[in-house]
Design a protein that fits this description.
Radius of gyration: 24 Å
Oligomer: single chain
Largest sheet: 7 strands, mixed
CATH superfamily of the largest domain: Type I PLP-dependent aspartate aminotransferase-like (Major domain)
Helix content: 40-55%
Number of helices: 15
Strand order of the largest sheet: 3-9-8-7-6-4-5
Number of strands: 13
Order of helices and strands: HHEEHHEHEHEHEHEHEEHHHHEHEEEH
Bound molecules: 4'-deoxy-4'-aminopyridoxal-5'-phosphate
């Protein structure tokens, strides 16, 4: 065939070679880790597919497990009101919002949801995003820029970190839940910045302890910054009626500038939200990239979340049940000498087991015994702080809790004695 002049010219140029994905060192590392656990005869506890709705129990591989690995804090994932609302919203709106809210994706159900969220916090307004993760990324990167300062708790969720990085702001952290350390950072840097954002979490996702909100508010008085609280694990959990960390401490919720939360946990849907002043919400609606350039929240998810918030109001007993169960778990675990770290027993209770391999082993043995709880290992937590993370729900029975604690303590005791020296196996 004939070859054009341009093609001839191109073919004589040196060609750049792009590595394939299989050649990437990052990929090789993932494969290495998988091989290592196979070599050690360890089953992979991650990505096991459940066959139904998971809450206090889960069905996996044809077996029913006592489940401590799902966010369904108040047992609403199969609540009749929630299912009914989801069905009604599907009938009315279909599944998708079919466009960005800015351009034809706005639905009446979005307003209903945002009103319900604002009502929870007593704020002027709220805005919802398609995921909790995206909410942090979109809101932080919208509000902060390269000339600004973000100071966050060292245990902040990865989504907050992603938001700060995208913003280009200077980033500092303070020691976990330590307002004295936050003050040290503020003292040395506050003068140099016009906008400062401080980020903390109502309940910390890996440790289960509660933010020192009164301490943060005292510093806010003096140093003047925006305070953002991530309520992913505390909505429905803290406070007598489950309104969150402000109710826990009895403080005025409007003294916090930015309430952030997710719809994927207590409200058993998917999505995230920011609640705050009218000005804050107006700004985010106009300028947050992850809102403007992403589809509106699926109406069915909005419908489910609205109904969940309704159940939370109508059945406060669920929050009490969750608290009783979490406190029971914590008390029994401590009695058996388990290291529950910083957990205050409201929703998340970790059992620390030091090294990652032991955490996986413990999780796998519990799985064999019919208890589903997942290990959290490096890089999600620092090496040496591997743990099992128990999510407690209002729907767990005392028997389930007692059995899980007993099995965990018994198996862990045996694993410690075996001292199989896995860490030194050369792979
Ligand atoms: N913030 C915190 C503290 C979280 O734990 C999570 C998720 N586990 C998120 C944000 C992100 O929320 P989602 O999973 O709903 O995207």
């Amino acid at each position: 065939g004939r070859v054009s002049r341009t093609e001839q010219a191109l073919s004589s140029l040196p060609r750049r070679k792009q590595p394939g994905f299989v050649d990437l060192p990052e990929y090789k590392q993932v494969v290495m880790q998988q091989r290592a656990s196979e070599y050690l005869g360890m089953e992979n506890p991650f990505y096991r597919a459940h066959e139904g709705a998971s809450g206090a129990t889960a069905s996996i591989g044809g077996r029913t497990f006592d489940n401590f690995a799902s966010y369904d804090y108040l047992g609403l994932n199969r609540h009749a009101d929630v299912l009914g609302a989801a069905e009604r919203s599907i009938r009315q709106f279909g599944i998708s919002a079919s466009a960005s809210r800015l351009v034809a994706g706005e639905r009446t159900i979005h307003h209903e949801l945002e009103t319900a969220i604002a009502e929870n916090y007593g704020t002027e307004a709220a805005i919802c995003f398609v995921s909790g993760y995206l909410t942090n990324v979109a809101a932080i990167s919208c509000l902060m820029g390269p000339r600004d300062l973000v100071i966050h708790d060292e245990f902040m969720h990865n989504s907050g970190l992603a938001g700060v990085k995208l913003s280009g702001a200077t980033r500092r952290f303070f020691k976990h839940n330590d307002v004295a350390d936050l003050e040290r950072v503020l003292k040395s840097l506050a003068d140099q910045y016009e906008r400062i954002l401080v980020i903390a979490e109502g309940i910390y996702s890996m440790d289960g302890d509660v933010a020192d909100l009164p301490g943060l508010l005292r510093l806010k008085e003096q140093y003047g910054f925006w305070l953002m609280l991530d309520e992913a694990h505390s909505l429905g959990v803290l406070g007598d009626s489950g309104r969150g960390v402000f109710e826990h401490y009895g403080v005025d919720p409007t003294s916090v500038d930015i309430w952030m939360g997710t719809l994927s946990k207590t409200t058993c849907s998917c999505g995230g939200y920011i609640a705050g002043s009218e000005a804050l919400v107006t700004l985010l609606k106009a300028q947050a990239g992850g809102f403007v350039y992403s589809v509106g929240l699926a109406p069915v998810l909005a419908g489910a979340a609205i109904a969940s918030l309704g159940v939370l109001r109508a059945e406060p007993q669920r929050t009490q049940d969750l608290r009783r169960n979490s406190q029971l778990f914590l008390e029994l675990a401590r009695k058996r000498g388990l290291d529950t770290g910083l957990s205050q027993g409201y929703s998340v209770v970790p059992v620390l087991v030091a090294d990652s391999l032991r955490a996986v082993q413990l999780s796998n043995e519990l799985y064999e015994a019919g208890v589903n709880v997942l290990p959290i290992i490096h890089p999600a937590v620092p090496e040496g702080l591997a743990r099992l993370r128990f999510f407690i729900t209002s729907a767990h029975t005392e028997d389930q809790i007692a059995r899980a604690v007993d099995l965990t303590a018994t198996i862990l005791e045996r694993l410690k004695q075996q001292n199989f020296g896995l860490a030194s196996v050369d792979v």
